[in-house]
Design brief:
Helix content is about 20%, strand content about 25%. Helix 1 runs antiparallel to helix 3. It contains three helices and four strands, in the order E-H-E-H-E-H-E. A four-stranded antiparallel sheet has the order 2-3-1-4, covered by helices on one side. By secondary structure, it is α+β, with helices and mostly antiparallel strands.
Length: about 120
Amino acid sequence: MKEIIAIIRPNKMNATKKIIDELEVPSVTAMPVLGRGNQRGLNAILNGFDVHPGLIAKGHTMGMKFVPKRMLIIVASDENVEIIMNALIKANRTGYIGDGKIFVCPTDDAVRIRTNESGDTAL
């Protein structure tokens, strides 16, 4: 089992929900978050303008700002991780700074509280 944590643009949530639904992912947790990446929270991103990576010199931004994003948490069986990751990338890649990140972490176990099922069965 793996935990997939995806940080994406808020305006990509509908496309992401659609593709996750098409894959019949059994469960996903989503929450609004604030953060910043290497770009340190560019004002242009905050104002809704995409900035092409080639236009920004690393380290030449004006202060750090937190940018609104959405965080998705999905726990999936090992064989589905790559399929889910590729779908998330497909739904969220624009080619501009701020597209987000995906983290994959090992998950030792899962337990469904109602039935006490564990492992992949609990998913």
